[in-house]
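Field reference: "sequence" (input) and "structure" (output). Example, Murein hydrolase activator EnvC family protein:
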Amino acid sequence: MAWLLSLALAAALPLPAQAAAKVTERSKQKQAAEAERANLRQKLDALKHDIGQTETAKDDAADALADSEQAISKANRSLRDLGNEQQQTEAKLAALAKKHDELSKTVAAQQAQLSGLLRQQYVAGNEDRIKLLLSGDNPNRINRDLQYMGYVSQAQARLLESLRANLAAVEANQTETRNAKDDLDEITQEQRDQKALLEKEKGKRATLLTQLSSKLASQRKEVGNMQRDDQRLSGLVDKLAQLIEEQKAAEAAAREKQRQEQQAKAQAQAQAARERQREREQQRERQRAALAKKPAPPEPPQNARTPPANPDAIDDDPAPSTPTTMPARNELTPPADTRDAAYGGPFEALRGQLKLPLRGDLVARFGAKRGDGPSWKGLFIRAAEGTEVKAVATGRVVFADWLRGFGNLIIVDHGNQYMTIYGNNQALLKRPGDLVKSGDVIANAGNSGGNEQSGLYFEIRHQGRAFDPLGWVTTR
């Protein structure tokens, strides 16, 4: 009995390289995602360079904070991503532990059952089939005992196979648990590294703020800087809108090309079906002509029975076959632009239903004068540093980077040339290309970009033109 259990255990052992393979797979997935993001970052960097290449101010104090503020944003985003991954891994570990307990109980029960069967067989003398056949006993009893022995053997085989499978599942469960724990240790180490980096960058930014405080204060009051900031943001929004429209045109062209290919394929299939139908008609004509040339059979006597019909004869008027051809014209209309559908409906239908991205004090309203400078194009909501900023509607992130005058800035496209803009953030928690839903946390409020107060700058634009967000939010 012991050797059978040992054999089952040995058969269930998986390859030892499985743990290393899982870690490698995780690394590959991360590298692929980073490569895709790097490609997108390259395009956005080129866009930023194109917008800022006409800038004349090269000594803006806020620019000195750019690297530090970007690093703080990246570290915060990484910590948030690692926290989510940690929660998922811990939940996976809990599920694996529960499954391990269930498998262990099943294996223990099967081992006890197998031990009982082997013990019974041993007590019965372990009489084999040959001895039974040569015993000279009653043939009916021999046949009955042989059937009984067959049933027992089959039950033992099934039980042993099930035990092997469960032992293999236990070992695989233990391997997966070890891999999950390794992932958790790796995540914990990455969190420690990111926290250390975050503290270092925060200290660096605090030192720079102290050194540049007077310069920042004077530059904030300069009308030219404010105007350039507005022009820079407007140029960015216009460029992004242009890129989005170009992408939509490319997608529409691809859909039209696919529709034409499908239509051409349908026409080719219809033509082939017509050719096959013509060939069948010609074959039937040839067969009817051949039958017409044969001599007529003699008239049978009146009292003779009618012979069966010729099985090879073909009906001159066959029933019409079910048409298998497709219509020459593709009846399916090309799919419409699904951008609004993917975002849960048109953005303009949400007028009066939006909620502000965060709770705080509204210290600047749309249209109010900024000292001697231009009017506010959006709202500034004062809030504590780190306050969660939420997307006001479903959309796709098209920009998430640092921009002079607005610090860590995130822009969400909602379709039909509607965009929402969130500026002066401490951290950007989403990347370009991410799909976000209404209420998703996309950033943490702050005072990046040289802003005096901590909070959020918020705009809504349509076709590049800013309008009052308060006309779109609910007061409930």
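The mean pLDDT is 75.
The first strand starts at residue 361 and ends at 364.
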